[in-house]
Hints:
Layout: H1 2-26, H2 46-51, H3 54-91
Helix pairs in contact: 1-3
Amino acid sequence: MTTAVTERLARAALDLHRLMIAAEEIRYLQSPASPREKTAKGADDPTASTALDPRRIAVAEGLEAAQEMASRLTAEIRAHVENLGAALDTWDGRKG
């Protein structure tokens, strides 16, 4: 049971890692599925198209939220690693 739980955690973390890499690569790019903004003269405006692209914004916001969550979870998991490691060291006589 324990190994199944940590295996699911590791797989989920790896999935998140892969998605975050992909999101980092495109966070500043306009989605090819988004409409193009036009200037007053009817020409394409790539700067406005990219800046106002709701799909790009959603990726950037999702990446930021995932980074914040991953940072908090990493700290929490590290604390559990230290606590369990210390308990195991004490149990087998290496400490304490």
